[in-house]
Amino acid sequence: MAGVPGVPGVPGGGEGGGPARAAARGSAAAPRDRAAGKAPPPPGPHRGPWAGPDGAGEVERAWPRPGSASGRPEAKAGRRMAEGEVSEGCRLPVLRRNQDNEDEWPLAEILSVKDISGRKLFYVHYIDFNKRLDEWVTHDRLDLKRVQVPRKEAKTPTKNGLPGSRPGSPDRDPKRKVEVVSPATPVPTPTETSQASVFPQNGSARRAVAAQPGRKRKSACLGTDEDSQDSSDGAPSAPRMTGSLVSDRSHDDIVTRMKNIECIELGRHRLKPWYFSPYPQELTGLPVLYLCEFCLKYGHSLRCLQRHLTKCDLRHPPGNEIYRKGTISFFEIDGRKNKSYSQNLCLLAKCFLDHKTLYYDTDPFLFYVMTEYDCKGFHIVGYFSKEKESTEDYNVACILTLPPYQRRGYGKLLIEFSYELSKVEGKTGTPEKPLSDLGLLSYRSYWSQTILEILMGLKAEAGERPQITINEISEITSIKKEDVISTLQYLNLINYYKGQYILTLSEDIVEGHERAMLKRLLRIDAKCLHFTPKDWSKRGKW
């Protein structure tokens, strides 16, 4: 399997065919504050196919009352549902603590119920929150006065004339999903934007931006350091089912909606998985899953791991080391020559990548694993995968930074390395689309910083304004032309002036970029890269 993710991306998840094919969810990407565990603002009443505890009438969505001191929703008059009556599919407020260490009562759906030594546990998914926050809770965290029971709908005839029924949960019924798409800002065609000038808007500003109506962006976005996670929240696209980690659009199986691994021990780190991963069934009930950090083989106990380490002679990923600077190294791994490692890598990545299905065909992919070196060996930090042959000019299929290394600049380093390979290959590249929300943030941040670095380095000749074309920016950076245009529009740099398109930079943009670059300490040094591209089209079946 090949993966991006996401790596969050694991830069993820994305982030978002190939080892990690991004899947379109059919709804807008969840806000980042929800993905981080922050409560959304209370919406208005929501009515749907949910009956109250007594089965009569529709019930309002049980959101916390803004005026309540505790944040707990006020219970409607009615009997309190017994703990034993709460079953899969029910919705009710559940107590949780957010990132600000405050109690809140978001609406959640019961996905599973289990009994351990006479004590009931409920697996809940918080509605409109990222699935990584799903958890097992005890009954004392449930508001049993606000239970919403799925209403049993009348069976409707199907095509073959036999009666059928529709699922009660709106999340599992694709027909219930409605996506509202707002008109997008028009994008200049490549010919219209093929040449632009860097033009100061006024005498006091070195470079200025002319604001476009309805498109206000904070300069702080340039300093964002999100790690990629390739899970698809973007626009729908038809993924190809050709890799070992591909997008799964249906994702309706209740089993795959629940985390099945409690904890993973990888070297000196213990990781809490975010999503389901198809490890063998006998390993899913263990309190800890032990992985060899060098070959990524899994075992059911610490003793098994210790016995394995006496036989495993690897101290770095298999494959060729193609980059080393300081303690950072990159290894190129062929999915055909190193199938076992590639499949184990994808199993690990799936724990942090949502909406992916695992397949075991890793032959069409190359994996680039980033490691950090110390006296004990080369420890995996993250990775990205790419197709050996891509007809869409994808230079990344899946990208992921492991959780212990996130928000430390490694995600952007993975992205920069992928473009450095594209420069050596003499191509422009782009990540596989659609990107996840976090994946898009990571790439947008990298694209913004890279393009602004080029623009601010331009020098005027003979009193003329600096001149550069979109094609020239694309050739210098190896960023695909469409991504260059979308980034310039995102930053509000493209303006129409006296019959031509020009690029204008404001002091805010310049200062924000300079602050972001001061924080970006990790960079790829092209002199340390030892890489010879291969023509896979002449190698038959890879």
From TrEMBL:
Q: A GO molecular function for this record?
A: chromatin binding
Q: Which gene encodes it?
A: KAT5
Q: Where is the composition biased (Gly residues)?
A: 9-19
EC numbers on record: 2.3.1.48
**Highest rank taxon of the organism:** Eukaryota
To which protein family does this belong?
A: Belongs to the MYST (SAS/MOZ) family.
Region of interest (Disordered), ranges:
1-89, 148-249
Q: SMART domains from the entry?
A: CHROMO
Q: Supply the source organism for this entry.
A: Corvus moneduloides (New Caledonian crow)
List where Low complexity composition bias occurs.
20-30, 180-194
Q: Which GO terms describe its cellular component?
A: NuA4 histone acetyltransferase complex; nuclear lumen
| Record-linked PANTHER family | HISTONE ACETYLTRANSFERASE, HISTONE ACETYLTRANSFERASE KAT5
Name of protein: Histone acetyltransferase KAT5
- Where is this protein found? Nucleus
Q: Which residues form a coiled coil?
A: none
Instruction: Report the InterPro entries cross-referenced here.
Output: Acyl_CoA_acyltransferase, Chromo-like_dom_sf, Chromo/chromo_shadow_dom, HAT_MYST-type, MYST_HAT, Tudor-knot, WH-like_DNA-bd_sf, Zf-MYST
Which Pfam families does the UniProt entry name for this protein?
Answer: MOZ_SAS, Tudor-knot, zf-MYST
Query: What catalytic activity does the UniProt entry give for this protein?
Result: 2-hydroxyisobutanoyl-CoA + L-lysyl-[protein] = N(6)-(2-hydroxyisobutanoyl)-L-lysyl-[protein] + CoA + H(+); L-lysyl-[histone] + acetyl-CoA = N(6)-acetyl-L-lysyl-[histone] + CoA + H(+); (2E)-butenoyl-CoA + L-lysyl-[protein] = N(6)-(2E)-butenoyl-L-lysyl-[protein] + CoA + H(+); (S)-lactoyl-CoA + L-lysyl-[protein] = N(6)-[(S)-lactoyl]-L-lysyl-[protein] + CoA + H(+)
